[in-house]
Amino acid sequence: MKILAVDFGDARTGLACCDRTEYLASPIGVLHDKDFGSVLQKVAAAASEYDVQEIIVGHPINMNGTEGPRAQLCADFAGQLAKLVTVPVRLWDERGTTVSATGFLNATNTRGKKRKEVIDEVAATIILESYLNYRRNHPQKL
């Protein structure tokens, strides 16, 4: 099934999608928008355009397992998105994805303006890869 991952941010929101076999997660873009409602509409449109059957929204839980204001904002985003689409919307723990994305971009020597342009879609791809790995390793829990 095709799954869309969202790394929701204040100014930029990264998107990634997998193929129907759930094997390959690929970045599909960054939404440069600060308006909550507008981002909701654009993500819903992307879900329709890519014909996804599920949406995963990164949930930035604190390292100690608590939820801060950012995690609540992402939960609110997922709840509002669920009202706009006909597919399930799930929160997925994204702890460490920005660090992983930064490490990947360091390894590929992506710097400066180019780094800022792609870090959010790289983070969305890492979120999706994490979710896909979980699905493969825990099919009974889904």
Automatic annotation (TrEMBL):
GO molecular-function term, one example from the UniProt record: nuclease activity
Keywords, in A-Z order: Cytoplasm, Hydrolase, Nuclease, Ribosome biogenesis
Ranges for domain YqgF/RNase H-like: 1-101
EC number per UniProt: 3.1.-.-
Subcellular location as annotated: Cytoplasm
Pfam families tied to this protein: RuvX
Enzyme class: hydrolase
GO-annotated cellular components: cytosol
Key word Ion transport present: no
GO biological process, one term: rRNA 5'-end processing
Record InterPro entries: RNaseH-like_sf, YqgF, YqgF/RNaseH-like_dom, YqgF/RNaseH-like_dom_sf
Tagged with keyword Nuclease: yes
Superkingdom of origin organism: Bacteria
Principal subcellular localization: cytoplasm
Protein family: Belongs to the YqgF HJR family.
HAMAP family hit by this protein: Nuclease_YqgF
Role played: Could be a nuclease involved in processing of the 5'-end of pre-16S rRNA.
Name of the protein in its database record: Putative pre-16S rRNA nuclease
